[in-house]
Amino acid sequence: MATYNADAPVLNNYHAVVSAFSDFLTVAIHTILYERNIYPRSSFLAARKFNCPVRQSRHPKVCQWIQDAVAAVEVEMLKCTLSNTSLVIHAPPPSSAPLERFLFSTSAFPSLPSSEVLTPFNDNPPPSADLPEQFRAAILRLSSLSSTLSPLPLDCSFTLVTELRDDVDIHPPLGPDTPWMAAEPGLQKQRKRNESEARAVSSRGKDLGGVRTTPIRNLESGAFVMEMWVEEGRGKFEE
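Structure (tokenized):
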């Protein structure tokens, strides 16, 4: 897993904020895959992170996929183009319907030119010594969700989905030289330019929002402001 310096007194620039997010996202993905029984629990090993017990997949290909996916998210986060990142769990074929969507909303993160990600913040942010404690509380909350969420069917799959900010000049990072591909239409936020107001107008895909939402935790420490929740999709309740 990636490492985060828990002894760092401040998140003094945007790069440090994104690094902390990437580290937490890695642990959260492993935790969700374990708690939602996406893989056999025997394929996870016990570890410690943020001074709490966590589970980490021991399968090299799963670990590599998570590492590569989080790294791809971090690249886009450093461009200040993303508002949300979500881990989406899909039903097995043939439906492959979205069943659960774990949201990590970073829309309140600072937005600044990519050339300034290492520039110290003008204001002195408060100490971030409590951020590992907030991470720990969020991981423990994720670990308890199985008692709240109904069980998933066997052989579910998962993917990592990102949503762009609503800025007009932000475009999806799609192309032959990128690791990204377009999400299915139901998980897309349709964006179009409103010429009269010079801004982007969004409409939600049918699978965004779900039919039931469960808050997980809000985290805030200096420039690090994130909301977490899980949405259960209609496919989970249709017989």
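The beta strands are 44-49, 52-57, 82-90, 98-105, 157-164, 189-194, 199-204, 212-221, 224-232. The first strand starts at residue 44 and ends at 49.
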